[in-house]
Automatic annotation (TrEMBL):
Residues 1-12 have a biased composition (Polar residues). This is Phosphotransferase family protein. It comes from the Bacteria. InterPro entries: ACAD10-like, ACAD10_11_N, Aminoglycoside_PTrfase, Kinase-like_dom_sf. Residues 53-285 form the Aminoglycoside phosphotransferase domain. Residues 1-26 are annotated as: Disordered. It holds the Pfam family APH.
């Protein structure tokens, strides 16, 4: 998922294509003939020179590749081919937060090598260890945990890791200057409102339903008028959800790693909680929650904690007043829905304008309005 400020820019190099016009992201973004020798030099092992590279994931955000040789397997992360916006796809930030959290209670992959100049692949990138485990599938029909008891434990483990992240003292891990926490939520609401104004015309053209989405604009205005006063500061992941974790194969309720730190910064920790709840499904859903869930999630399988139970678990882990937290959370859920709606508008707009692979915007147009409706609903009625 893209974040902060992305802009439609031209790739540094033309993307190779495969039959049907699809972008060959391996050839264009991480050619083995380039990656292998560089990795051999960085890791001091000539066996890496002959490497195989394969994409991981859907490519809607920073690109991820597996790199495999007789020396082993690692993971390479680089910005999308269609965007080099410094704040949106900052590889240095990802590498920095992973390094900072390496010796904390937050499980993260270990960074092995970095390239900051962009001279090798046309953009900065880094390589990290491959964490063996299970990424939760985006489907309740294929759970990696098979019993309600395991699902309950796995769901709580995800919440506990988020609470542990927010308990980390940024200064103690070299992240004191990782962001500007003062006024964080005010800036976030303003930033995403500005992004919507930037993308609304192009989104409307791609959507075929016109550019005007007054309820999205109104949601942003409601949030701007109700920004809470909070002194809480933590490392914020920015896109924390079940599907951005890796679970242990042998102990399927233990989180082995948290992935996708491209949106991380210092800010209000409840922003992570709110977005997690937008992504979180329940076994029994009602509109407008069910309508807004454009991404499937394994958390809809029976046994996973409900959203209310997620909030209670987080409060317990952080030693917060559960009633006070329950009153605070709806604003952050509303903001999470607003942010995701604007992000989707940007993905569709950029894909339609040719600034990103057309496949990235496929099927997303219809997800925007339900997210907006969810944002208003939560501001009016809480998590019910």
């Amino acid at each position: 998922m893209s974040h902060d400020t992305t802009s439609p820019t031209t790739p540094d190099q033309p993307a190779d294509t495969v039959p049907g016009g699809a972008v060959d992201t391996v050839a264009a973004g991480a050619p083995p003939a380039v990656v292998g020798p560089w990795l051999a030099q960085q890791l001091g092992d000539p066996a890496w020179a002959e490497s195989r590279v394969a994409p991981i994931g859907d490519g809607r955000s920073n690109l991820t590749y597996s790199v495999t040789s007789t020396a082993g397997s690692v993971v390479l992360r680089r910005p999308p081919l269609g965007s080099v916006a410094a704040t949106a796809h900052d590889m240095g930030r990802e590498q920095r937060v992973l390094t900072g959290l390496e010796h904390t209670a937050v499980p993260v992959p270990r960074v092995l090598a970095t390239e900051t100049t962009g001279d090798v692949l046309g953009a900065p990138f880094y390589v990290m260890e491959l964490v063996d485990g299970v990424v939760p599938p985006g489907s309740a029909t294929q759970p990696w945990v098979s019993t309600p008891e395991q699902r309950w434990a796995a769901g709580n483990a995800v919440v506990d890791v988020l609470a542990d992240l927010h308990a980390v003292d940024p200064a103690s891990v070299g992240l004191a200057e990782f962001g500007r926490p003062a006024g964080f939520m005010t800036r976030q609401v303003r930033r995403w409102g500005t992004q919507w104004e930037t993308w609304r015309e192009a989104f409307g053209a791609a959507d075929g339903a016109g550019a005007d989405r007054p309820e999205l604009t109104r949601l942003g205005e409601r949030l701007a008028a109700a920004v809470p006063t909070s002194d809480a500061v933590s490392v914020v992941h920015g896109d924390y959800r079940l599907e951005n974790t890796i679970f242990d194969r042998a102990e399927p309720t233990r989180v082995r790693a948290v992935l996708d730190w491209e949106m991380s910064t210092l800010g209000d920790p409840l922003a992570d909680v709110g977005l997690l709840l937008v992504y979180w499904h329940q076994a029994q859903e009602r509109p407008p929650w069910s309508a807004a869930q454009y991404l499937p999630s394994a958390s809809s399988a029976p046994g996973f904690p409900t959203r209310t139970e997620v909030v209670a678990r987080y409060a317990q882990r952080r030693a917060l007043d559960p009633d006070q937290l329950a009153e605070q959370v709806p604003f952050y859920v509303g903001f999470g829905a607003f942010k995701l709606a604007v992000v989707l508008a940007g993905v569709v707009a950029r894909a339609s304008a040719g600034a990103a692979d057309a496949r990235t915007g496929r099927g997303l147009q219809g997800a925007l309005d339900p997210l907006v409706a969810l944002g208003h609903h939560v501001l009016d009625h809480g998590l019910e």
